[in-house]
Amino acid sequence: MKRIKINTGKVGLVFKKGEYQKVITEGTHWLYLNQNVIIYDLTSEFIGTIAIEILLKDTVLADMLDIVEVKDNEFVLVYENHNFKRVLEAGRYFYWKGLINRTFQKIDKSKIYITENIDKALFSNYQLNKHIRAFEVAAYEKALLLVNDVYTKTLTGGTYRFWRNDTSIKIAKADMRQLQLEIAGQELLTKDKANVRINFYTQYKVVDIEKALLDNKEYEKQLYILMQLALRTYVGGYTLDELLEKKENIANAVFEEVSKNTNQLGVKIVNCGIRDVILTGDMKDIMNQVLIAQKRAQANIITRREETASTRSLLNTAKLMEDNEMLFKLKEMEYVEKIADKIGEITVSGNGNVVKQLKEIFTVNN
């Protein structure tokens, strides 16, 4: 005989010539010499040295074990003393009862929605995270949830998690803020065949995400084409001069026209306008020449207007002098003063007309 001692927290399985005999627990035990003992730690998972089906025939041993069966479409979360320990994949697992308080949470991963009560802090744990698909939807976005390519529901801002399995899960997101679409460098012909380049913009919002993403492919490109065609139509109906003068009218017309068709795209036009009208090639030089000619014509008109006013003033002065001898004398004095500023000395007599004498002086000098 031989004595075997099993310490606290341990358990022993007795074998005789490789055949399982019994289980022994804490305490001192006497065994035959041809018997041997394998000692297990009650805090660890139990892994048998022979087929588990043989061991489980011993009801005493079976009652001492937690048996966890995990199917192919399942996994199990193991908690020890209420703390997460590990994830069990498909298989069969055995844990000793008694010393550690273990709980097992079985998860059916064939479904997509996470309905189990799981602490969110565990989602970042790699063992669990690899079984999860996560999608982020920003606060300014909405998203369509597609399960096996079938629309299921619309998601608002937040983090969404689903179990990872063979089911296809996709989300299609749209920005719900006010957006701006630029239609730049559009080369168009006006009614009078002038070639211009126009930079146009439009501001819009997605108002129906289902229409925008489910009923339409690339709704932004379709909106771009609608704006482009409407712009071409209205620009082609104006001459260059009308285009430059009525940019706002064209923008309003494009706005009204495109707004009729945006409902089917799930978007709403908020505003639009022409940013720039750029003249291309020789047209720019021609317009510069026209502008210069216009300014010269305006300058000539102003000059002629001034000359006419000056002549009219002289005529009025002459008429007044003809009717008023005193005014004539004052005018003589004015001219004498102006001449005196430029001539050193002039001698005239006191008899006769001063202007007449001045005339005779300049005639002699000449």
UniProtKB/TrEMBL annotation:
Annotated TM spans: none
InterPro entries (alphabetical): Band-7_stomatin-like, Band_7, Band_7/SPFH_dom_sf, Stomatin_HflK_fam
Mode of membrane association: Single-pass membrane protein
UniProt similarity note: Belongs to the band 7/mec-2 family.
Primary localization: membrane
Record protein name field: Slipin family protein
Ranges where the Band domain occurs: 132-291
SUPFAM superfamilies: Band 7/SPFH domain
GO CC annotations on file: plasma membrane
One Pfam family this sequence matches: Band_7
Subcellular locations according to the entry: Membrane
The organism's place on the tree of life at top rank: Bacteria
Lineage: Bacteria, Pseudomonadati, Bacteroidota, Flavobacteriia, Flavobacteriales
